[in-house]
């Protein structure tokens, strides 16, 4: 007796990788570059690339016609209300996007599964989007975050709590409370006793890691979740060049 596989069964058996992009700066460009390389090697695997419409239009403007057949871009809601007038704060668009997550990605993900008839096999995401870990866990699939910035910045986010505690302890120990006196200057110049950051100083840290007198934002809170991400991941992809970074990193 011969058996046959229907087109639907064949589609269900193929790998389907969902890719979540962080739609700001060079993040989506770095991620789609990796996806295109993977897609050309793994031609039997489908890659669904989820990103905001504005970012998709930008990165695919010149390369859309050259996309492999196994790569398709999907738009996710950017969180910007209709007829919204921006204040001029560059972080406003980022904050609106974060408010929309993770529901915007989940909605688009469901759409891609319904359209292709293929369940998601793996999540490949920008590491900033730490909520992807919960989605992968709910789907019982591997989650592979991609860290596109320089590698030592990942260490800053992993050890954020330690950095803040040491900074606060030093402020109390030095008796500084104004944020502008000599003790503070000395504190800002102190090196960080943190793995991968031994050559850096408190002054080198952005507000997202060390708020100082600034208030926490949705963006800094999102980055603060990265320290909980690392123990959960199956694999972590780093943008690393041995010639550029010191051995301790």
From TrEMBL:
Gene3D superfamilies: Glycogen Phosphorylase B
Keyword Transferase: yes
One term of GO molecular function: quercetin 7-O-glucosyltransferase activity
Taxonomic superkingdom: Eukaryota
Secretion signal, residue range per the UniProt entry: none
Keyword Transferase: yes
Coiled coil: none
Record key words, sorted: Transferase
Transmembrane regions: none
Family: Belongs to the UDP-glycosyltransferase family.
Record PANTHER family: GLUCOSYL/GLUCURONOSYL TRANSFERASES, UDP-GLYCOSYLTRANSFERASE 74E1-RELATED
Protein name, entry field: Flavonoid 3-O-galactosyl transferase family protein
